[in-house]
Amino acid sequence: MELEKIITGMITISKEVGSFIRKEAGAFNADVVELKRQRDLVSYVDKTAEQKLVKALGELLPEAGFITEENQVDQKKETYTWIVDPLDGTTNFVHGIPTYAVSVALMLEDQLAAGVVYEIARDECFSAVKNHGAMMNGSRISVSATDRVEDSLFATGLPIHNFTKIDEYLGVLNELMRNSHGLRRIGSAATDLAYVACGRFEAFYEYNLNAWDVAAGALIVQEAGGHVSDFKGGDDFLFGREIVAGGKVHPHLLNTIRKFW
Question: Which of 64, 100, 101 is nearest to 83 (CA)?
């Protein structure tokens, strides 16, 4: 399998599904929103977008299995597996806040091999193939070279249903608010990671995420020259539900998190 050809198909499919989501946003009725659990929203747009992705990606690489957010298919396979978030930032979408993305990653055995994050409102497509660098709309991107917390802008997420670590969260927030350019919580982890990859954020961290939230973005950060880890500095960020991603400031952010976590 030639990943360079596969990534072209992934980009085309992601943009096509993004176009569907963009069209639906213009006439979306929040009355059709469902709750998967408290504050965890889903709509027919998520479900239809996932169906479109599964169909098209299945045709692109028929031998691959799937890990998907809406669980319409769940068939991880030993060799190739798609990891798909059809609409990362559903709450933003529902409330008319224009930051949400399609996230598609391809895993080869246990390693991320290709990833696409299509940020719909800005029409920005971030992509990467392992060992081939990271791109945004066809131009190469790289992470920020800033290596001081004091000069950094950070991105994070906040809990929506698991509040067992709220004190730890507040400790890290307090430390970073006092000693950096600030923090942003824009509501789409895939977009956060893409923005780290192109240097808009120096780093991103969040707890209690799923593989589909981070798979594509994590690879894009790595291929843009960045570092991705769990909160301990290890490699369990894909299924371990915690992630730190950044450029040269990555180890300093890890040290801050360790003070409280």
Answer: 64
Global pTM reads 0.94
Question: Beta-carbon neighbour count of residue 40 at 10 Å?
Answer: 12
Location of each CATH 3.40.190.80 domain in the chain: 149-260
CATH (residue range 149-260):
3.40.190.80
The closest alpha carbon to 224, from 247, 200, 204, 203, belongs to 247
Parts of the chain belonging to CATH 3.30.540.10: 3-140
The rounded distance, in Å, linking the Cα atoms of 124 and 116 is 10
User: How many angstroms separate the CA atoms of 253 and 147, rounded?
Assistant: 10
Residue 16, amino acid: E
171 class by beta-carbon count within 10 Å (0-12 exposed, 13-18 middle, 19+ buried): middle
The helix/strand/coil state of 227 is strand
For the domain bounded by 3-140, which CATH number is listed? 3.30.540.10
pLDDT in tens, the chain (261 residues): 688 889 999 999 999 999 999 998 888 766 667 766 555 566 888 899 999 999 999 999 999 999 997 765 556 666 999 999 999 999 999 999 999 999 999 999 989 999 999 999 999 999 999 999 999 999 999 999 999 999 999 999 998 888 999 999 999 999 999 999 999 999 999 999 999 999 999 999 999 999 999 999 999 999 999 999 999 999 999 999 999 999 999 999 999 999 999
Distance CA 92, CA 98 (A): 7
Q: Give the angle 159-165-169 at the CA atoms, nearest 5°.
A: 70
Reading across the β-sheet that carries 242-246, which strands appear in turn? 182-184, 153-156, 203-207, 242-246, 227-229
